[in-house]
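YM 10:42: HTH lysR-type domain-containing protein sequence, as discussed on the call
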Amino acid sequence: MDSEYLKTFVTLAKEKNYTQVADSLYISQSSITKRIQKIEKQLGVNLFNRNTKSVELSKYGYIYLEYAEKILQLEQECLKKIDQAVVHDNSLIIGSIPSIGQYGISKEITNFIKDTGVEIKIITEPSGKLENLLHSNQCDFAFIREVKDRKYFKRIPYAKDQMMAVLPKNHHLANLRKISISQLEKEFFLLEPKGSRPYNLCVNLCKSSGFLPNVVYTDRQIENIVDLVADGMGISLLMSKLVPKESSRIVAIPVEPTVSTSISLCYMSDENLTDLKRKFIAYIKNR
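YM 10:58: structure's back
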């Protein structure tokens, strides 16, 4: 059924007046009559009870109205989805761990924008949340640390990093070339948010060395953690690239056993890749 005919029927059902419908739809009253008659002929029932004073829905009309409104609503939703898909085909949504600058991710994305002129939206979230966003098709790609759900993702290696013990400059262990995790048993720990992959990695590392870390502070903002370490509140375990190189108030020392993590560009393994997505994959692979 033509959606314009459905719209005419729904409008007449609500207005109950041919003149008002003609004015609102910018068509003649005779056109309204022809459209309604065509629908009724197709259905084989009268949708309106007509008299000289009013137009009222018949019992069949009330049934048809319910579904006509749903059909028109679905059509609008469909058109909206198609419009969004057209825009999406010419843009990308890329997720990343919060340390987007330290690993050069922001630079790679901005360079790709300059080369292609495409629109890119960037979302920063912890790795676990990024995996969920990929699963729910809320982003096209994601730079994820230590991918857990490898079954459903294709991964392109992007970067590796090594864990460091971050200490105040005047700490009694600050002159060592390497630090054993067991040497930190009595320390106060300042870590990334509880439940995050970096947090769990640190806690499990301490447990494997025979102790449970005394975590006195957690924060998503690395600079806050580093500032508090410099002030002597405790120590931290951070990846090397997250530690500010210009700070003279802290030291970063490799830990033993050596702990490395990897960051990968991920996308769904069953993804139907557009030309734009293929370009971005090639760009990251060839950087």
